[in-house]
Design brief:
By secondary structure, this protein is of the alpha/beta class. The protein contains five helices and six strands; from the N terminus they run E-H-E-E-H-E-H-E-H-E-H. The longest helix has 20 residues. The relative contact order is 0.17. Bound molecules: guanosine-5'-triphosphate and magnesium ion.
């Protein structure tokens, strides 16, 4: 079955977004403390496709050894999972571009892993400030990449982006079926 992984820095809002998309409170564990999600968690939707919650990167309060382990686990998953259709790379819309996000997204690009950028927590700042942060991020990307990936603005608080993400997934699901079953 096709699957879609959600990844981004610790605390960016991956688990909250998965709950918002699935419309099930408490499905993926949420916490104000970074590092809540520590395993690769699969959530089956409509018995047809999976939402995948991944541990965040850039979480400072763990040992170097533990962090290296996480990195290998995530890297292996992203590179080897053959039914992984698209990665949703989450970026916090409240802050200016961060090196760790640019580095991770650059890596996805290098490895030619299809991805969409989801800007999270857009309920927090004014439209103007959110827009400034997003434009700054896109500007950083254009320094390295000719083509920008698709971008969707989201908020798990007020369900912004839900329809857009779900229709994006539905479209890819139907293509996945065509490819796998002729
Ligand atoms: P880890 O599993 O630790 O990597 O974190 P995560 O990326 O899964 O983040 P999580 O969903 O646990 O959310 C982290 C914090 O951000 C929680 O306190 C959430 O309530 C809050 N949060 C998540 N999404 C939103 C949002 O859209 N708007 C607002 N205002 N807060 C949010
Ligand atoms: Mg989480």
């Amino acid at each position: 079955m096709p699957e879609y992984a959600f990844i981004g820095r610790s605390n960016v809002g991956k688990s909250s977004l998965i709950n918002m998309l699935a419309n099930v409170k408490g499905l993926a564990k949420i916490s104000g403390t970074p590092g809540k999600t520590q395993l690769i968690n699969h959530f089956l939707v409509n018995e047809a496709w999976y939402l995948v919650d991944l541990p965040g990167y850039g979480f400072a309060k763990i040992s170097q050894a533990m962090r290296a382990k996480w990195e290998i686990m995530i890297r292996d998953y992203l590179l080897k999972r053959s039914n992984l259709v698209t990665v949703f790379a989450l970026v916090d819309s409240r802050i200016p571009p961060m090196a760790s996000d640019l580095k991770f997204i650059g890596w996805l690009g290098e490895k030619q892993i299809p991805f969409v950028i989801l800007f999270t927590k857009t309920d927090k700042l004014t439209k103007k400030k959110t827009g400034d942060n997003i434009r700054a991020f896109e500007k950083k990307l254009t320094e390295t990449w000719e083509e920008l990936p698709p971008v969707i603005l989201t908020s798990s608080e007020n369900k912004t982006g839900r329809d857009e993400i779900l229709s994006y997934i539905e479209k890819l699901n139907s293509e996945f079926k065509t490819v796998s079953h002729g």
